[in-house]
Write a structure and sequence with these properties.
Keywords: Hydrolase, Signal
Family: Belongs to the type-B carboxylesterase/lipase family.
Distance between the termini: 75 Å
Number of helices: 14
Largest sheet: 11 strands, mixed
CATH architecture: 3-Layer(aba) Sandwich
CATH superfamily: Alpha/Beta hydrolase fold, catalytic domain
InterPro entries: AB_hydrolase_fold (IPR029058), AChE-related_enzymes (IPR050654), CarbesteraseB (IPR002018), Carboxylesterase_B_AS (IPR019826), Carboxylesterase_B_CS (IPR019819)
Number of domains: 1
Helix content: 25-40%
GO molecular function, one term: carboxylic ester hydrolase activity
Order of helices and strands: HEEEEEEEEEHEHHEHEHHHHEHEHHHEEH
Protein name: Carboxylic ester hydrolase
C-alpha cells in the first residue's frame, strides 16, 4: 500500500522518470512517434519540450512544397533520447516596426529548417485531476510575415504555471515567401497554413506521450494565427481535430487573399535574384529552389510588397483548398459548412493602433488607425453571426483594457496584440512598460481564468462559471472585458459596436504603409 501511495504521489507531482541509463536522469521525458525526448524544467511549475520537429525540413527539393510528415519509429526498438531543450529557429521572416520591440524578436535565430513546435506541461498537477490533460494549441500572429515560438511574448509558461492542468503547445510555421510563395508553377499554395494543419495532426498523434488528451484539444490563435485556425475549420469541417476554438482578433475573412498569382511576390522576387522566366514558370520555380535561402530571404524588399502595405514578401492566395473567396466563405458560413465546435472569439477597441506606422515621439495617425480598426472588428462580428445562425455555442467578447504593463507609449489605446501578453502572462517581455503594475497582473489572471475555463469545458464552461450567455447578435450577449480598466466583464448589445459594419469607412490595406506623422 505504501509503494502505491508513493507511486501515485510521484505521478501527481509529475516527477516520475524512466528507468535505465540516462545522462540527465532528472530531466523531464516524453515519448513521441519519433522516439523519446528530453525536456527542461523552466521553473518549479512547468516542464518544457522545445524545438520538436513535426515535419520534414522544408529545404532543397522540399522548398515551396507542402509539409511532409515525419517517419514513425518502431516502439520495439530502443531509440536514443533526443534533446528538446532549446527553441528551434523561427522561419525566415520580416520584422515589423512593432511597439512591442524585442518582445517580438526571436531568441533562436532564423532558418529555412524551422518546422518545430514546443510543448509546455504542468509539473505539479492536483491528484484529483490525475487524468489526461486538456491541450491548448496557440498560433501566433504577424500578418503571415513574422512570428515564432521563441519570441518572448509568445511564451506561455506563466499560463501553464497558473492553471496547472492544461498543456499549451506553440509552433512555427513558414512565413513570407517561403510559406506563401504563390508561384504560378505550384500546385499547392498557402504552405504556412498547411504547416499548421500538419502540426495539429502531430499534436493529436503524440500529445498523449506528454500527458495530454488527444481528444481534448482546443485550437487558439491571434491575428493571422486566428485567421489560419478559422480557415482550417472551413477546410477540415469533418475532421477539425479540435473540440473548441479561441480566436483573438482574427477570422478567415480578414485575410483578403488574392485570386491571381501572375504578378505575385514570387514572380517579383524571382526577377530580383535572376530566376525570372515568364515563358517557363516551372524552370523559374526550380531556379528559385536552387537559390541560397539567405539570398531569397534578402530578396524580399519594398519591390515585393504584398497588398497589406507591409513587407512580408508573400501573402495568402485563394486556392480553393485552404482558402476560398469571400463570397464562398459567406455561402459556407450561412449554410454551416464549417466545423461546428464551440468558439470564444473577440476583438479589441483600438485594433488599428498597432498596425499603422508610428513614431515614439509623434505616435500614429489616429484617423487612419480608427478607419482600419473596424476591418478587424466587423469580421469577428460576421463570423460570430455565422455561428449563431447555425446554433454553434459561441461567446463573443470586446477587449477594452489599456494596462500599463503592456502599453509602452501613452498615445496607445487597446491596440492589436496587446491582449496576447495578458493572456499568456508574458507582459514582462515588453520594454518601456510598468512591469510591476498590479492591475496588469490582475487582468492577466482574470483573462487566463476565463480562457482556461473555456478550454476545460468548451461547450458550457463560460455559461456555468461566469454566467455568460451564448452569443446572440439581437440580445445583450456581447461580453465587454476590462471596461475603464475594471477587472471583470459586463454584457451589452453587439449593436453598440457593430453599427459601423453597415457603412465601413473608406480604407485600404495600403494605408497601413503610410508614413508615421511628423511633429
Amino acid at each position: 500500500m505504501q509503494h502505491s501511495f508513493i507511486l501515485m504521489s510521484l505521478l501527481c507531482l509529475g516527477t516520475g522518470h524512466p528507468t535505465g541509463a540516462d545522462k540527465e536522469p532528472n530531466a523531464p521525458r516524453a515519448t513521441t512517434q519519433q522516439g523519446p525526448i528530453r525536456g527542461i524544467s523552466t521553473d518549479q511549475y512547468v516542464n518544457a519540450f522545445l524545438g520538436i520537429p513535426y515535419a520534414q525540413p522544408p529545404v532543397d527539393s522540399l522548398r515551396f512544397m507542402a509539409p511532409q510528415p515525419l517517419a514513425t519509429m518502431s516502439p520495439a526498438i530502443d531509440h536514443p533520447v533526443r534533446n528538446a531543450t532549446a527553441f528551434g529557429p523561427v522561419c525566415y521572416q520580416f520584422h515589423y516596426n512593432s511597439v512591442m520591440g524585442n518582445a517580438l524578436t526571436e531568441t533562436s535565430g532564423q532558418s529555412e529548417d524551422c518546422l518545430t513546435l514546443n510543448v509546455f506541461v504542468p509539473k505539479r498537477r492536483p491528484c484529483k485531476q490525475n487524468k489526461p490533460m486538456p491541450v491548448f494549441v496557440w498560433s501566433f500572429g504577424g500578418a503571415f510575415g513574422e512570428g515564432g515560438g521563441s519570441m518572448p511574448m509568445f511564451n506561455p509558461t506563466n499560463f501553464v504555471a497558473r492553471n496547472k492542468d492544461i498543456i499549451v503547445v506553440t509552433w512555427n510555421y513558414r512565413t513570407t515567401l517561403f510559406g506563401f510563395p504563390n508561384s504560378p508553377a505550384l500546385d499547392q499554395q498557402n504552405l504556412g497554413i498547411r504547416d499548421q494543419r500538419v502540426a495539429l495532426e502531430w499534436v493529436r498523434d503524440n500529445i498523449a506521450g506528454f500527458g495530454g488528451d488527444p481528444n481534448h484539444i482546443v485550437l487558439g490563435g491571434q491575428s493571422s494565427g486566428a485567421d489560419s485556425g478559422n480557415a482550417m475549420l472551413y477546410t477540415h469541417k469533418d475532421d477539425p481535430i479540435a473540440i473548441g476554438a479561441v480566436f483573438q482578433s482574427g477570422t478567415v475573412q480578414i485575410i483578403g487573399a488574392s485570386t491571381s498569382n501572375q504578378d505575385s511576390e514570387f514572380v517579383r522576387a524571382a526577377n530580383s535574384v535572376g530566376c525570372a522566366d515568364p515563358a517557363n514558370r516551372n524552370r523559374e520555380l526550380e531556379c528559385m529552389r536552387r537559390t541560397n535561402a539567405d539570398i531569397l530571404h534578402h530578396a524580399i524588399s519594398n519591390n515585393t510588397l504584398n497588398a497589406f502595405g507591409a513587407p512580408p514578401g508573400g501573402s495568402p492566395m485563394v486556392d480553393n483548398e485552404t482558402l476560398f473567396t469571400l463570397q464562398e466563405y459567406d455561402a459556407r458560413g450561412r449554410a454551416g459548412r464549417f466545423a461546428k465546435i464551440p468558439t470564444l472569439i473577440g476583438s479589441l477597441d483600438d485594433e488599428g493602433e498597432a498596425i499603422v506606422n508610428w513614431s515614439k515621439e509623434c505616435g500614429i495617425n489616429k484617423t487612419t488607425a480608427a478607419n482600419i480598426t473596424p476591418m478587424l472588428q466587423c469580421n469577428v462580428a460576421l463570423e460570430s453571426r455565422y455561428r449563431h445562425l447555425n446554433q454553434v455555442p459561441t461567446w463573443r467578447y470586446r477587449y477594452r483594457g489599456i494596462f500599463p504593463g503592456v502599453t509602452p507609449y501613452k498615445w496607445l489605446g487597446s491596440y492589436h496584440e496587446s491582449d496576447v501578453a495578458i493572456l499568456l502572462g508574458s507582459f514582462d517581455s515588453i520594454a518601456h512598460t510598468d512591469k510591476s503594475s498590479p492591475i496588469t497582473a490582475a487582468a492577466s489572471q482574470y483573462l487566463q481564468q476565463v480562457v482556461a475555463t473555456f478550454i476545460r469545458n468548451p461547450t458550457s464552461g463560460l455559461s456555468h462559471v461566469y454566467k455568460w450567455p451564448v452569443y446572440n447578435p439581437g440580445e445583450n450577449t456581447l461580453v465587454q472585458l476590462f471596461t475603464n480598466n475594471t477587472i471583470g466583464a459586463t454584457l451589452t448589445s453587439p449593436m453598440k459596436f457593430d453599427t459601423i459594419c453597415n457603412n465601413l469607412p473608406p480604407m485600404s490595406w495600403e494605408a497601413v504603409g503610410a508614413p508615421a506623422p511628423v511633429c
